[in-house]
Amino acid sequence: MLTGSGAQVKKVFILGSTGSIGANALSVCESLGKDYRIVGISGHSNLNLLARQADKFRPRFVVVTDSDGAHLAPEKLLRSHKVLSGDDGLQEALFRCAPDIVVNAIWGTSGVAASLSAVEYCRTLALANKESMVVAGEILLSRARDKDCLIIPVDSEHSAIFQALLSGRREELRRVILTASGGPLRNLKKGELSSVSPAQALKHPVWSMGKRITLDSATMMNKALEMIEARYLFNLTPEQIEVVIHPEGVIHSIVEFCDSSMIAQMSVPDMRVAIQYAITYPRRLSNSVAPLDLVRLKRLTFLSASERRFPALSVGKFALEMGGTSGAVVASANEVAGAAFLEGRISFPRVVEVVSEVLQSHSVVLNPEMDTIREAQIRARERAALLVSKSFSRKRGHLR
Ligand code: NAD
Ligand code: MG
After folding, report:
1. Structure pTM?
2. In this structure, are residues 325 and 364 in contact, taking their beta carbons and an 8 Å threshold?
3. Which residue CA neighbors atom 9 of ligand 1 most closely?
4. How far, in Å, from the CA of 78 to the mean position of ligand 2?
5. How far apart are alpha carbons 234 and 47 in whole angstroms?
6. What's the CA-to-centroid distance between 97 and ligand 1, angstroms?
7. Which residues approach ligand 1 with their CB closer than 6 A?
8. What is the pLDDT of residues 278-327, one digit of tens each?
């Protein structure tokens, strides 16, 4: 289909449209106008919001990924839209829409299967779901290559690296520096962390994001996952990946080339910049995001990312060195431990300890098939749950 300007209309499917990134992706597409049409959306819960989005964007397909909860969809949604459910429904919708662009904004490791399906049916996967790379990076990249599907990162650090890499040749790259805001607890001393409450951990100073990634920013497990994400996305060695604390959150990451030139990508911390770039790549289109006011900003600060203060970074490094199934183990154990903290079952520092203990007890499998990865995830979840329940009973006995 052609637009008034003669350009081909791009068909966009947004997975996880009811979440923070998904809702932003819808508003980016809306602001891009008629050249981008929403052909599909999916949501897992919050079906009233999904119904409102369906009414507004009139996609060809609406998918409720939680097949058990699909019957809770509002009557009006079911009457006026083609609603499919579960993983099979998602596959069918992707197949029948053959979208140009899929934005995967599903939360957590449950988004991995959706990425693997998306690369079968779309031209570009705009990937917010970092767990897809962390859990199954090699498999996803190889399937995308086979299908000629481009993967463009939405995660702001990886979008920055992707953009900065365009300044040089691949063989000229020396290292990448991932920036981290340090999260809401950056200024607390190590000893103060054991009394941190979920409400404190969920108050991010710079970014407005979904609940779980906000917690991951506080524990820095988000940065650990991003180190692994970068490794696969950009085919890096562990030694080429560094992390630096940058509290202002305006330099989204930096690439250093062999001549010691550093190329950084900057903007106000607003995910719409990275989302839009992934959708419109290789074009840049104007938007309504406020430009960065450098004079008002005055200074940029960088601090060393100490592994003693942020033990999650050691977990990330260890997983980078181990490779294979270790990313899947870290991501899965972190989901269990993070949920346990939010439910008040373990202390804040215990989240990273649990992930670290699960990783250390894991026998890594290199170049794993999907079945091996799933098996490793199940074991990691079980082990993390066991460690959580042991900590919980000790906590009830006032020992921890
Ligand atoms: P969110 O919790 O706000 O939204 C998640 C979406 O996933 C919702 O639509 C929800 O219905 C759906 N979902 C939840 N469980 C699901 C399941 N089991 N199966 C299918 N769909 C499910 O999350 P978010 O903050 O938008 O983050 C989404 C992804 O983007 C995460 O992988 C996160 O790490 C990544 N990311 C987010 C940000 C951000 O600013 N929020 C930045 C960078 C990367
Ligand atoms: Mg990020």
Report:
1. 0.96
2. yes
3. 16
4. 35
5. 36
6. 22
7. 16-22, 43-45, 65, 105-107, 110-111, 128-131, 155, 207, 209-210, 212-213, 271
8. 999 999 999 999 999 999 999 999 999 999 999 999 999 999 999 999 99
